């Protein structure tokens, strides 16, 4: 499962002129540490920002990003929630919290946050894709397809979006549409063994296309998708 990027809010902190680093300087250093992959250090700097100004929504959101990168999803959710309580007008902490819920497989909560994020900024393509993933996991296939289509309207050359749309179409009993999406995914990324596997299985099971299906299953196996071996053994031996 691919989760698209998370976001840091624009800096709005005040410059502090007294002794020591200013609120802004601490925040900027936290962002530098975050971008350098020093997530624990980044959390420390954002905590220092909050000590100076407990209403700095950007610091809470950025802290949540650093915690998310450490896979501390419960702590990240707490930080994003603090950011939202201070300022509920930005889609970013809602989107970020939705991503944390998605990682926890709390799909209903993720969808709720993605709905708010989309309502606040309907132009953010990542919201549609990630909500589509959550809807797919909930087996809400038609709604997932709609979200993947929205994502593809903006960025049509995303192989993983086509692949996950295919899974939703197959779940929605649309093998022809699913195969079209799988072919699109393969054309954009011919190293996707799982796409070849799913295409081969669908060709054989839905359309009885043994020759084409076996060819795609063998390609999947060559790309390291071991589950293809069972199908090849059972159906592709002469």
TrEMBL record:
TPR repeats lie at residues 23-56, 57-90, 125-158. Residues 1-20 form the signal peptide. Keywords: Repeat, Signal, TPR repeat. Pfam families: TPR_11 (PF13414), TPR_16 (PF13432). InterPro entries: TPR-like_helical_dom_sf, TPR_rpt, Ycf3. This is Tetratricopeptide repeat protein.
């Amino acid at each position: 499962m691919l989760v698209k990027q998370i976001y840091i809010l624009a800096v709005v902190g005040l410059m502090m002129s007294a002794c020591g680093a200013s609120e802004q300087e601490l925040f900027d250093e936290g962002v530098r540490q975050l971008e350098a992959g020093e997530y624990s250090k980044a959390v420390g700097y954002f905590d220092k920002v909050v000590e100076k100004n407990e209403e700095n929504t950007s610091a809470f959101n950025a802290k949540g990003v650093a915690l998310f990168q450490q896979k501390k999803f419960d702590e990240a959710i707490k930080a994003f929630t603090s950011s939202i309580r201070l300022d509920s007008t930005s889609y970013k902490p809602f989107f970020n919290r939705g991503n944390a819920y998605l990682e926890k497989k709390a799909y209903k909560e993720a969808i709720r946050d993605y709905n708010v994020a989309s309502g606040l900024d309907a132009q953010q393509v990542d919201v549609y894709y990630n909500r589509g993933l959550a809807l797919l996991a909930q087996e809400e296939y038609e709604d997932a397809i709609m979200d993947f289509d929205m994502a593809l309207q903006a960025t049509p050359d995303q192989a993983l979006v086509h692949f996950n749309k295919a899974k939703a179409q197959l779940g929605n009993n649309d093998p022809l549409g699913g195969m079209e999406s799988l072919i699109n995914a393969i054309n954009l990324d011919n190293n996707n063994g799982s796409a070849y596997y799913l295409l081969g299985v669908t060709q054989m099971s839905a359309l009885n296309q043994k020759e084409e299906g076996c060819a795609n299953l063998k390609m999947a196996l060559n790309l390291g998708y071991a589950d293809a071996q069972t199908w090849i053994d059972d159906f592709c031996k002469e």
